[in-house]
């Protein structure tokens, strides 16, 4: 499971004590709600299905797959059905290949969600071996499903935008700069990322 409300608050309070601009941002928009997902195959399958489509469209595809294929939280289902059946259930050719890659990694035992490497970079490497799972998807999984406290998805556009806003940068910082400025936030970068998304959504509500 992801970081709890209590963990988020404790980490953000620690960051606010170091960085007055973060303290000011918390004062403006408050603490973020937890972002928690289930650990395991189903969450990563949902990530694949949700790539480049709206939340509503992703849920519609998930529901159609479940109706046509059965219990799609069982990786054996995806591993057994044909590409044609996956396409008929709503997946593009590319996503069908990604879903099959994920299912085969799990059913073969090469990927064990209960025993991912403890080192964050090694865990990211294990997940990005799956077709269709890039660094961002791996980072978000480890943050939301495993609650790894120091995950920092510096490639996320909203994270970059909000780091720039919170710290008063004149332009959106690059991924490299976003990664560099957060070095001082270890080991609380996961909470900083959740707060950045919260700040982004709060700012959008104000505009």
What's the helix and strand layout?
Layout lengths: L4 H14 L1 H10 L11 H9 L5 H15 L5 H6 L2 H6 L4 H15 L12 H9 L6 H10 L12 H11 L7 H7 L7 H18 L1
Helix pairs in contact: 1-2, 1-12, 3-7, 8-9, 10-12
Characterization of this structure:
By secondary structure, the protein is mainly α. The mean pLDDT is 94. It has 2 domains: 5-36 and 150-206, Endonuclease Iii, domain 2 (Orthogonal Bundle), CATH 1.10.1670; 41-144, Hypothetical protein, domain 2 (Endonuclease III, domain 1, Orthogonal Bundle), CATH 1.10.340. It has helices at residues 5-18, 20-29, 41-49, 55-69, 75-80, 83-88, 93-107, 120-128, 135-144, 157-167, 175-181, 189-206. Helix 8 crosses helix 9 (135-144).
Biggest pleated sheet? none
Distance between the termini: 32 Å
CATH architectural grouping of the largest domain: Orthogonal Bundle
Cα-atom Rg, whole angstroms? 18 Å
CATH class of the largest domain: Mainly Alpha
Uncertain residue segments: none
Give me the secondary-structure category. Answer: mainly alpha
Mean pLDDT: 94
Q: Describe the global form.
A: elongated
Number of helices: 12
Query: Number of domains in the coordinates?
Result: 2
- Corresponding CATH superfamily of the largest domain: Hypothetical protein, domain 2
Question: Which terms would index this structure?
Answer:
Endonuclease Iii, domain 2, single chain, 207 residues, 2 domains, elongated, Endonuclease III, domain 1
């Amino acid at each position: 499971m992801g970081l709890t409300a209590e963990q988020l608050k404790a980490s953000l309070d620690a960051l606010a004590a170091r960085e007055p601009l973060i303290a000011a941002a918390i004062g403006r928009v408050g603490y973020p709600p937890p972002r928690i997902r289930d650990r395991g195959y189903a969450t990563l399958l949902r990530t694949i299905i949700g790539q480049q489509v709206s939340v509503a469209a992703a849920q519609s595809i998930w529901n159609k797959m479940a109706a046509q294929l059965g219990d799609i939280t069982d990786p054996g289902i995806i591993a057994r059905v044909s590409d044609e059946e996956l396409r008929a259930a709503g997946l593009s050719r590319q996503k069908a290949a990604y879903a099959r890659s994920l299912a085969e990694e799990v059913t073969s035992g090469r990927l064990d969600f209960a025993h991912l490497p403890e080192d964050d970079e090694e865990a990211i490497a294990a997940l990005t071996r799956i077709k269709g799972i890039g660094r961002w998807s791996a980072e978000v999984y480890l943050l939301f499903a495993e609650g790894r406290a120091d995950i920092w998805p510096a490639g996320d556009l909203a994270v970059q935008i909000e780091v720039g806003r919170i710290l008063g940068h004149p332009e959106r910082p690059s991924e490299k700069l976003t990664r560099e400025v957060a070095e001082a936030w270890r080991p609380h970068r996961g909470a900083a990322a959740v707060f950045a998304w919260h700040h982004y959504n709060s700012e959008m509500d104000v505009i």
